[in-house]
């Protein structure tokens, strides 16, 4: 099943949800304001998208509030930060098994949709 991690104030998260709904594909939406990714999920998604730094929203409001936009934390520290505060993640994270995308990625979403129908 396709999972979408994001939050309702994120325009791209809503676009991803709409993308799959328009194609009659059921998804599991996870609101990052309520529940974050487990350590295993976070590690799996990071591996799929090229590392934790690809998931970290360094230019986001939350990173700026915490002073994290100035210098990039180490991978170990970044894992701790993302586990403790899932709102530091770029959104949406769209996951289909071991594959994932972060941010706006309609070509990848289409591949996930094709596989879900297939």
Structure description:
The chain has 118 residues and is α+β, with helices and mostly antiparallel strands. Helices cover 46% and strands 15% of the residues. It has helices at residues 11-22, 39-49, 52-55, 61-65, 75-84, 106-117, and strands at 2-6, 27-31, 93-96, 99-102. The protein starts with a strand and ends with a helix. The model has no long low-confidence stretch (mean pLDDT 94).
Which key phrases capture this entry?
Glutaredoxin, four-stranded mixed β-sheet, globular, 4 strands, alpha+beta, 46% helix, 118 residues, single chain
CATH topology: the name is Glutaredoxin
Number of helices: 6
Number of strands: 4
Provide the structure class.
alpha+beta
Main pleated sheet: 4 strands, mixed
Instruction: Report the mean per-residue pLDDT as an integer.
Output: 94
H and E string: EHEHHHHEEH
What's the alpha carbon Rg, rounded to whole Å?
14 Å
The coarse overall form would be globular
Strand portion? 15-25%
Distance between the termini: 13 Å
State the CATH architecture. Answer: 3-Layer(aba) Sandwich
Number of domains: 1
